[in-house]
Fold these 2 entries.
Entry 1:
Amino acid sequence: MTIKIQGVENMNNQQKLKYVLQLSKGQIETEDDPIALFSNVSAIIKGVLPDLNWAGFYFVKGGELVLGPFQGLPACTRLQGDKGVCAKAWRDKKPVRVDDVDAFPGHVACDSASKSELVVPLVKDGEVIGVLDLDSPILNRFSEEDERCLVELVDILVEKL
Ligand code: SME
């Protein structure tokens, strides 16, 4: 199924978030292959939401977080469980919003342009199987509203895994 992102310029944040959900649901309903699906969802997020320099997934494999489909500059391929924002979301099984990554001890800087970050764990059958990671080049980019919408998105995405 092909998708076209359009009319985003005139939308407010809430409308953009709803649009991300709507486009992603269209993909979720029509595509079963996880690589195809997660690739397009990362492209939808990065294409619709403003002020992001990176949007993508890491999956838990062999005790590490291993890079999955994403949009943005090449990133760290493996993250350890004891360091960084993604690892915290993995360990705590909860979303982590960081307004200023430089003030987060152990932040893993894959791209020095990143200033704030939102990580949402992918929880399936009570276990974290991966994370959705969003990076922004501006401070304080992510709101509670962003977090709620992305939690809703990953909840429906994990059902496809
Ligand atoms: N900043 C993340 C690492 C992943 S990149 O941002 C793509 C962290 O601290 O876990």
Entry 2:
Amino acid sequence: MAKILIVEDEVKIARFVELELKYEGYEVEIANDGRTGLDMALHSGADLILLDIMLPGLSGIEVCRRLRLESEIPIIMLTAKDDVTDKVAGLDMGADDYMTKPFAIEELLARIRVALNRHTKRVAESEEKKDELSFGKLCLLLGRHAAYFGEDELSLTKKEYELLEYLLKNKNIAVTREQLLNNVWGYEYFGDTNVVDVYIRYLRQKIDDRFGVHVISTVRGVGYIIKDEK
Ligand code: CA
């Protein structure tokens, strides 16, 4: 279950929210001033922060600003009633959401769930991005072993996918048939490299022919290459 850090100097409110969150199954930590809050936010491994604005030490706005310099952790600001300036300042500093005191605990719980889900999704998306290999409209999702051309998923066999991935990872380098055999089929080359040519032909049918592009080039006397247009 997620860990939530409450940064709030009003002890009663902090205690009340803590009990409710624990009842929901969250782990909870509390800081009663801005400096402690910032320090705990950076080091305690919390998953979300409830951050009061009017705090001794550092204001919530300042805590938020400093946190955002090094952390994407979801922040929900707790603001005094009708203090529009504070709300805007908090959001400007990168807070994800805010709650006006006094608030209904059900609403706070709902906003916490939304902020946590959104964050999880964002992290997953950025991880997936790192796991992409692109060439023009062609895109490989390495984690899923899936290949797309624009919006269309290519239906590639395992070997076709691996062949394409190897060529893309060696973009702008001519790779020999032997190299392809060794790295994609995974055995030492003894005789016939025709199998590579056959699979290249399949790939070309599925990409070049289907989409009218030219992705894989033949390098005469060497092998194949995926080359950036110059
Ligand atoms: Ca306060």
